[in-house]
Design goal:
This protein is an all-alpha fold and 244 residues long. Helices cover 59% and strands 0% of the residues. The chain contains 10 helices and no strands.
Length: 244
C-alpha cells in the first residue's frame, strides 16, 4: 500500500474551514495585523488575539490552525497594499523606483513585514503575493531583462534589507515615546563621544550639519536604489545607435 502523503504545512495547502457566525478568518487576520503593527511579533499570541476578539483560542484554531498560518495570512494581506506600475511604461527606472518605494512604504507601515518574509512558511502562495509577483514579472519582462526573476530578486533583496533596518530603527524610536528628531538629539552627545578620534566619522555626528532624519533615510534609500538600477541597466540588451 502506498504511503499517505501529507500536504505541505501551509494555510494555502489545506481546505479552508467553514466560517463561523460572528467570527471570520478575515476578522482574525485584521486584528492580528493591528496587534503586529502596534506591538510587534513577540506580542502576538493566539490567546491574546482571542481575548481581543472575545473568542477562545479553540474558536480561532477552527479558522487558523497555527500561529505560523496566521503569519502567512497577515503577510499576504498587507502585501496587497504594494503597488506596481503597469508593464510597458516609457521610463523603466521610474517604474521600478515607484514599485520599490511602495514596498518600502508598506514595510514601514507594518514594521514586522520585512523581517518575516523569509520565515512565513509558504506565504508566497497567497493570492496577493502571487498577484504582486505576477505584476513584477510582467514589468521586468517588458523592460527587457534577459532573466527577469534574477533582476527582481536583486531589487527586492535591496528593498527588504533596507526596510528591515529602517523599520527596526523606527520601532526603537517609537518605543522611546519621542519624535525621531528628539530621540537623535538625546543620543547625539553619546554618539559624538563614541566617534571622537575617528577621522572619517566626526562630521557624521555634527549636529550643526546634520539634516532632517527623515531626509537622511529618504536620501539613503534613493542613493542605494540608484546604484542597484545602475548595475541592472548594464544587463539590458544594448540597442545599436544610428550609424555614423
Amino acid at each position: 500500500m502506498a504511503a499517505k502523503t501529507n500536504p505541505a504545512p501551509s494555510v494555502w495547502t489545506r481546505r479552508r474551514p467553514a466560517e463561523q457566525p460572528g467570527l471570520s478568518q478575515a476578522a482574525i487576520v485584521r486584528e492580528a495585523i493591528a496587534m503586529l503593527d502596534a506591538d510587534g511579533i513577540d506580542a502576538l499570541s493566539m490567546r491574546k488575539l482571542g481575548a481581543r476578539l472575545n473568542a477562545g483560542a479553540t474558536s480561532l484554531y477552527r479558522h487558523v490552525a497555527t500561529k505560523d498560518e496566521l503569519m502567512e495570512l497577515a503577510v499576504d494581506e498587507v502585501v496587497a497594499e504594494i503597488t506596481v506600475p503597469p508593464a510597458g511604461g516609457t521610463d523603466w527606472r521610474a517604474d521600478v523606483t515607484a514599485a520599490a518605494g511602495s514596498f518600502r512604504a508598506t514595510a514601514l507601515r507594518h514594521p514586522w513585514l520585512s523581517s518575516v518574509l523569509g520565515e512565513a512558511g509558504l506565504a508566497y502562495l497567497g493570492p496577493n503575493l502571487m498577484a504582486f509577483s505576477e505584476r513584477l514579472a510582467a514589468l521586468f519582462t517588458a523592460i527587457g531583462f534577459p532573466e527577469p526573476p534574477r533582476a527582481i530578486d536583486t531589487v527586492l533583496c535591496y528593498v527588504i534589507g533596507m526596510s528591515t533596518t529602517e523599520a527596526a530603527w523606527l520601532t526603537t524610536v517609537a518605543r522611546s515615546g519621542e519624535t525621531e528628531g528628539a530621540f537623535i538629539a538625546r543620543l547625539m552627545p553619546a554618539a559624538q563621544e563614541a566617534a571622537a578620534g575617528h577621522e572619517h566619522l566626526g562630521a557624521t555626528y555634527d549636529p550643526a550639519t546634520a539634516p532632517d532624519p527623515v531626509e537622511i533615510r529618504e536620501t539613503k534609500f534613493a542613493y542605494g536604489l540608484e546604484v542597484v538600477l545602475d548595475g541592472l541597466a548594464l544587463r539590458l540588451p544594448q540597442t545599436s545607435g544610428p550609424s555614423s
